[in-house]
Amino acid sequence: MLLKIDFESETPIYMQLKNQLMEGMARKELVPGDSLPSVRQLAEDIGINMHTVNKVYSILKDDGFIVLDRRKGAVISNNAGAGSEYLSRLRNEIIPAAAEAYCRGVSKDEFLEICSSIFDSFKRGN
Amino acid sequence: MDEKIFLFYMAVFVCITAFLTGFFLQDISRKGIFFGVRIPDGYQQKPEFKSLKARYRINYGTSFGIYCTLYLFLCCNNLNLTIFIMGALFSTVVVYINYLYIHVKAKNIKLYEGSSIVKRDIVVVDTGFRDSRKKRVQIPAWWFCIPAAAVLFNIVVSILQYDMLPPMIAVHWGASGMADAWAVKSYTDILSIPVILLFVLLFVFFKYRISGKVKQQIDPDDTDESTARSRAFRYVWSVYFLVISILLSAIFTILQLNKLMIIRMGPEMLVIIICISLLTAIAGIAISVLVGQGGSRIRINGKGRESMTIDRNDDKLWKLGFFYYNPDDPSVFIEKRVGVGWGLNYARPAAIIIAVIAVLLVIGSVGMAVLPSLTK
Known about the structure:
The structure holds two protein chains of two kinds.
Chain A: E1 2-6, H1 13-26, E2 35-36, H2 39-46, H3 50-63, E3 66-69, E4 73-76, H4 84-103, H5 108-124
Antiparallel strand pairs in A: 2-4, 3-4
Chain B: H1 3-23, H2 25-28, E1 33-34, E2 37-38, H3 47-78, H4 81-113, E3 122-126, H5 145-161, E4 168-173, E5 179-184, H6 187-190, H7 192-213, H8 223-259, H9 268-291, E6 318-319, E7 323-324, E8 333-335, E9 342-344, H10 349-374
Helix pairs in contact in B: 1-3, 1-4, 3-4, 5-7, 5-8, 7-8, 8-9
C-alpha cells in the first residue's frame, strides 16, 4: 500500500503512519500474511528517525495487528480484539468528532449514516 | 604500442567522456531537479530556466575547452602518469564550478517565484516496493554465485598448483606481456590475485545491495510512473553490477592462470584487459545517459501532464544542491540529486568515515601509480 507522510501536517508523523496502516488493514490493502518493511527500511524510505517507526510498530504489535518476525520483519496478523479497554478508548476518540458535529447541528442519523458508509466501504474491500 | 602514445589516447578518451557527461549533466539528472534545485516539471520549459541551461552549456563548453586544450598540450609535451591522472581528476572541478554558478542562479529564480510553487511537503512510500512477489527491483542475489565460484576456483587451483611451481615465480609483467620481476614463491604471493579479486567483488556486490536499498522517491502526482522508473533504474544497474563482476572475475582468472603457468599469455593479455576495462567504463556511461538518474530518461507511456507545483520541500537538506545532510534520516547511502549514481548522507558518522576512506584510497592508489616515476 502507499503511505503518504505530510511533513507540514499538525498530526505527528507517528500518528499519520499508524492511522494510515490501520486504514490500510481495514481496506484490505494490507491483509494478514503481508509483510511490512523493517523498521530501518521504512525509516530510510521516508527519511525519518527509526524511533518514530519503531514506536508505531510497537503500538501495532502490542495491539495485536502485526507480529515482528526476525527474518521477515513485520508481518500483518490481525489478532486484535475489541476489549472493554479498547471500547472506552474508542468512545473517547469519537467524542471530539461527535461533539463538533453536534454543535454544528449534524443530526444523529446523519452522523450514524457517515459511520455506516465508512464501515460499508471497509467491508466492500474498497 | 608506445606507453606515451597510449596515455595520450587515454587522455583524449577522458576528455571526450568528461566533456559529454558534464555537458549533459542536467539532462541525465533526476526528474524534477534542475541543477540541484527542486522545481516543478512544468518549469523546465520556462524561458528563465531554458536560458540558464543554455548559459551553463556555453560556460561549461568554453571553460572545459580551455582546460582540455591545456591538459592535452601538457600531455603532448610533458607526458607522465602524474599529469594524466591529476588532469583527469581535476576536470571534475571544472564541472563543479560551472554547476555551482548555475545552481545559485536557479535557486534565486525559485525564491523569486515565491512560496506558491511549493504546494505541500509530503513523501509517498510503497510498503510493497521491494516485495519480490511483485515486479522485481533487482536481479536476484544468487546470480553472484557465478563470480563467487570464480574466486573459489582461483583459490583451489592456486593451492593445487603450488607444488608444481618453480622456486622463483614471476610477480610483474611489462606491457609486452613478458614477465620482468621474480620472487621466491610463497602462498601469500600466489593467493594475492584471488584475494584482491575477492575484495573487488565484495565492493561491487555491496554497491549492488546499496542500489536496491536506497529510498524509493515516488512522485505523489504520478505514483505508477515514478515507481516504474525507479524499479527499471535499479534493475538495469543490478544487471550491470553482475556483468562487471563476471568480467572482472574473467580478467583476474586469466591473470592468475598465467601467473600459475597453467596458460601462457603474451601481449594480447594487456589488450584484453584494456578492452574489458574500457568496455565496463563505456557501458556504465551509456547506461547513465540512456536511463538517467532514477530512470529519468526512460520513455514511459504516461499522462505527460507537467505539474506546476512541487510536493516536497527538501532543498534545505541538500547543501549546495549536492551534499545531502539530514540528521533525521537513518540512511547512509542515497541516490544523488545531480548526475547519476549514489552519494552519502553526511549527517551520519558512518558516511564521514566512508568518505574519508574513499579519499584516502584515491590518494593512495594515485600515489602508488605516481611514486615510482617521481623517485626515478
